[in-house]
Amino acid sequence: MSLGSVPLKYKVTIDREQCMHCMRCIDNCSYGVYHKEDDRIIIDSRKCTACHHCISMCPRDAISLKERPVDYRSHPLWTAEAREDIINQARTGKIILAGMGNAKPYPVIFDRLVLDACQVTNPSIDPLREPMELRTYLGKKPSRLEIDKKDNGDIELKTKLTPNLKLETPIMIGHMSYGAISLNAQLSLAKAVEKTGTFMGTGEGGLHEAIYPYQKNMIVQVASGRFGVDINYLERGAAIEIKIGQGAKPGIGGHLPGEKVCQDVSCTRMIPLGSDAISPAPHHDIYSIEDLAQLVRSLKEATEWKKPVFVKIAAVHNAAAISAGIARSSADAVVIDGFRGGSGATPKVFRDNVGIPIEAAVASVDQKLKDQGIRNKISVIASGGIRNSADIAKSIALGADAVYIGTGALIAMGCRVCGQCYRGMCPWGIATQRPDLVERLDPEVESEHVANLIRSWTLELSELMGAAGINSIESLRSNRSRLRGYMLDEGTLDVLQVKPVGA
Amino acid sequence: MEKVEIDAKGMHYTPLNEMIREAVRNGAKEIILDNVIGQRFIADGLKADVTIRINGVAGGDLGMFMNGPTCIVNGNCDHAPGNTMDGGTIVIHGSAGDAAAHSMRGGKLFVKNNIGYRGGIHMKQYEEERKPVLVVGGSSHAFLGEYMAGGLILVLGIGQEDPAKDRGIGSGIHGGMIVIRGEVKDELLGVGARKAEFGEKELEMITPYVEEFCKYFDTEPSGLLDMNYTCIVPASTRPFAGKYTWE
User: Fold this and answer.
1) Is A51 labelled as part of a ligand binding site?
2) Which ipTM value was assigned to this complex?
């Protein structure tokens, strides 16, 4: 007996009265939902991923889409998704692959934190007429400054400062590799960070020649696969990031399927054409915090101690202790990637079930570093599920120096979070290497969209800071008195070190 | 300035590397490091046409990210010599620790005696001109050539009864070739690795590296240039292609 097929996920319909038969839906759908039979457009809803490209390109707004048009017998435990996953795995015997971030309805802690605002006794600041300082320096800060006073009255700084990364806004774009996303998508992000005075990560896919003009805004990544890593790559980056873990898949490595390793990706990663690009879970020269320190120092030694080195870990329950180790490893920043962080491809069971929320991880990391008296030795970067400027302000108030955004930047370029990135057919030209799809994305236009997003969130941050009576981002950092928890349990409030509303 | 001598006694690796870079900038073609005792990262990221003679025991990550130099170690070497090396040659007149030639993507590493675990792990290759080569005179330990994506690992087993007696050879290998002197038991092969015929073509391929090894260590190649080798290659360039299904 066959298991049969599961019901389709989405139902696409065309309003035939509205439709002008322009056939743009056929041209636009890379998944093959539409085809033409005689003069009629035929719809195969089963192929639909809800990417919305057809809807956004339809000149008559004739296309409608509904999620899950077929009901199952309702059951609180055996949801439709649970049943369909079992059918899928019973049929294939394989691991279910997924894209984007955690898709389970866990409560969002950010949404249960509220920011404070000044009223009478400590007046708020008007960002329209008062300067607001959002410039952020990432890297080690000295415990104290030693100054030498000369006889002629001049003063000289005796303390040797460690190289820091200078950001005009505490918002950066996280690592999305060339291979996982298209070159045009990377170019758009690169142009956007140059326009806004911030930085982006290359991901573990190396640095394509087309990105060289933006290398001063690039954080180059070294993952266990060491793709595209050579001394020139390290020297090009403004900073270097060692990727240990990723929020969407803590504890496992990365894997770019051979289908996406086209000629250009093969050249940039320096691997054979069409072969799988495998980044295993561990770095095979790191089995302890001492080994990690050795990799950090080897990267600094290779680049003559001129560049900050970051270490990225997934948010897991012992992230605080690990970060304290990282702070002692010569690293300049630790990136904590929360369990809502995105991914081009990850086993669904990891995406939806492994890791902890970024809010709790950042707060516990910040607290541990402060408790040990080493908070100045390292910067903290929060990433994974940052959706708006309020999330950024809350992240910083919980202890982050800056944030990485990922999915938000993709949405600014058109992404509709359909979660099919691993199939390489992204109709928006983002998570694909198919030339006809890549060329749909215009780096000039999309870089402006991404830059606008960063600008608008930066403006909102200024307003939020001003309302809280703060004129410098440094005064917001780890300033948990500006936060209150609403409908959060006592245990979570304790981890966050945040008081409940009304307290 | 053709030749520079540096006494590394008691010296931290950073000033040592600074002195090496300074010598290279001043045109040194040969640098001799005396009294090396465990300094890490020697020649880390160094881009130059220079020969560095290391008298003593080199510490971890010798020649990491290096591109161009020749490092000759008159002694043993700690872990991961040639780590993510891009180009150049490392010759070790002794043994090396774990993860020798880790992620090496070009250049050659010759070890006179033995290496530890995970030798040649993640070695990768981009087209024919960037082919990394690891040649081990003695034996290797477990997970030799794990996740190997390109290049050549050659284990000669000189003076060894069993040059590769540990398990996991070529686990996850999806490119390149591992050649081991003598027979290798099937149960020692990792997932994704398979034995292939060692024929005249393969012998021709390894001959220049055997000869180069013998030149460095003053050994006679004739006893090594025969068909007594086992060749291990990937079962597929896509080892995990069948592991996943769509959401």
Assistant:
1) yes
2) 0.95
